[in-house]
Specification:
Layout lengths: L6 E8 L5 E11 L6 E11 L10 E6 L9 E8 L3
Parallel strand pairs: 3-5
Antiparallel strand pairs: 1-2, 1-4, 2-3, 4-5
Amino acid sequence: MREQRKRLKGVVTSDKMDKTVVVAVTTTKRHPIYGKVLRLVKKYKAHDEANECQIGDRVEIIESQPISRHKRWSVVSVLERAK
């Protein structure tokens, strides 16, 4: 049985590459000692077959098999277009 693949939501920060976008995913985490809420941003390179994503779009990405040296994610859908 195949395991469920991870899905993340983030904002496109770069679309300069061909069929690739950089997606910034923001998560929150509480500091273990001080309790302050920290906002962490991690960037993922994701495969965008149709080159449909633009900077500022909110997208959903899913884990996939390695496509290139740095790409292990694919864009599933565009949730919200940039204004």
